[in-house]
Write a structure and sequence with these properties.
Elements lengths: L1 H5 L2 H21 L6 H5 L4 H21 L3 H25 L16 H10 L4 H13 L2 H6 L3 H8 L11 H24 L4 H26 L3 H6 L1 H10 L4 E5 L9 H5 L7 H6 L11 H5 L5 E5 L6 H17 L5
Antiparallel strand pairs: 1-2
Helix pairs in contact: 2-4, 2-17, 4-17, 5-9, 6-10, 9-11, 10-13
């Protein structure tokens, strides 16, 4: 009885309904089934959805009540990334039923943008990304990206991040990288560059990103890969401005201690941003700042309202997270 009294009903109903809402149509209308359980044990698709729904409800309650959002977020985000890459490796080495389609590409987010342009076809992944952004907004980068979890882990090596670029330089660099990937893919398509050469170039791009994470992000305790190198991050933050959620800071109660600035690894809460009363351009709605504020001055605004905004938003994210766990990998 005490458990039900403590239950957050908003989080409960969203996380209860969203995974089945997303996964049942996927099972019914996409063939072959993208649900892993159905691929290996026909007729068990509903068991997979049930298990993941229970998981979503459980995790949603934790996120609704936790006083340390960042700590829990790191764990379930990393869990998803480990599952993602484990399935990818198993699909390559053991059983191709772990993989979604035959059009395999390296698990590098940049290829979500570049691969369809190079091939001139196969726009499933960009469409999936845009669909996810419509539901989660820029939170794709801080909750659902299979690569970003590792950059986040590297950046948490120290407590206080150290910046190397100004906000303006960061924005210029990240959109230069987006333009570079698009132009490179278009030129390779135009000149008929072979798939083997394209593979080597893409692999080099990905390995350079790993080096940036392991060396620079770790050294600076700042997500340099995600905020300057990854072109998908550029798309996400740009289109995220259309999403109806914002981090707002109450200037009447804010003490300007700037603890939130040291907590944010996306450079979205500089002292200037705090003074302005809202998070900056790079904000991915990770939510870490909410539990870092001792004055309780930071709020998430959703469709212009603060009421239950964070609970609603993080419940949507958790529902997507659970849904993503169910699917085969590309």
């Amino acid at each position: 009885m005490n458990y039900f009294k403590e239950l957050n009903l908003t989080a409960f109903f969203i996380t209860l309904l969203l995974p089945p809402f997303l996964l049942i149509p996927v099972h019914l209308f996409v063939q072959p089934s993208m649900l892993l359980a159905e691929r290996f044990f026909p007729g068990t698709w509903w068991i997979e959805i049930l298990v993941l729904t229970i998981y979503a409800v459980w995790l949603g309650q934790i996120m609704a009540k936790t006083g340390n959002i960042g700590n829990v977020r790191v764990r379930y985000w990393l869990f998803f990334s480990v599952i993602f890459f484990s399935q990818f490796i198993l699909g390559l080495t053991l059983d191709d039923r772990f993989l979604m389609t035959g059009k395999l590409h390296l698990p590098i987010p940049a290829l979500i943008v570049g691969a369809p342009i190079y091939r001139g076809e196969g726009f499933f992944m960009p469409i999936l990304l845009l669909s996810t952004l419509a539901i989660a907004g820029p939170g794709w980068c801080s909750h659902l990206c299979y690569i970003g979890a590792w950059d986040n882990l590297s950046a948490r090596n120290k407590k206080r991040p150290k910046k190397t670029f100004s906000r303006k330089q960061t924005i210029v660099l990240r959109y230069f990288m987006l333009a570079f990937v698009i132009a490179s893919a278009a030129l390779m398509n135009y000149f008929g560059i072979s798939i083997s050469v394209a593979f080597v170039l893409a692999l080099g791009f990905g390995l350079l990103g790993v080096f940036i994470m392991l060396f620079f992000s770790r050294k600076l305790s700042y997500m340099l890969h995600c905020t300057t190198y990854c072109p998908v991050g550029s798309v996400t933050t740009l289109l995220g401005k259309l999403y109806p959620a914002r981090i707002k800071i109450d200037q009447n109660s804010c003490t300007a201690c700037n603890i939130c600035s040291t907590e944010c690894r996306y450079d979205a809460l500089t002292p200037i941003d705090v003074k302005s009363g809202s998070a900056g351009w790079n904000c991915t709605l990770c939510g870490d700042c909410l539990s870092s504020c001792h004055a309780d001055s930071i709020r998430l605004s959703f469709f212009g309202s603060n009421k239950n905004a964070w609970i609603i938003y993080i419940s949507i994210i958790i529902g997507l997270h659970a849904g993503f766990l169910a699917l085969a990998r590309l």
